[in-house]
Amino acid sequence: MIPGDIKLHKKSGQLELVYTDGAYTLSAEFLRVHSPSAEVRGHGVGQEVLQYGKKQVLISNIESVGNYALRLHFDDDHNSGIYTWEYLRELCLQEEALWQKYLNRLQAAGQSREPLPADTQVVTITPLKSD
Q1: pLDDT digits over 4-13, tens only?
Q2: 36 Cβ contact partners less than 8 Å away, ≥ 6 residues apart
Q3: How far apart are CA 117 and CA 121, in angstroms?
Q4: How many domains does the chain have?
Q5: Structural domain harbouring 12
Q6: Is residue 126 part of a domain?
Q7: Three-state DSSP class for 16?
């Protein structure tokens, strides 16, 4: 189902999608952490990468991709996800459950929605397996 109207509310960081059966508003953070990009989804099942520290991310621009999708440009320079109409509709209809699942994954990983200070860099080192 294709939305009849799409509005980007830049100040609040929300994307409003209006369908014949109602309007849905999705936050930039929700859309960013559920990006359909390889950076987030990985290249196959089990390769998903948990996104954290995205609480303050905003959508800086939206553009249509043919007649089938939107590309969202986020202010953290992420813009490689192509959000098909079908995927956007799924996000609208399942927002509450998807959000709770995300929060549970964050908690299990010991991560936070809060961004790191601008002068902080984190390097994750994975120990080699010994035979």
Answers
A1: 999 999 999 8
A2: 81, 82, 83, 84, 87
A3: 9
A4: 1
A5: 5-109
A6: no
A7: strand
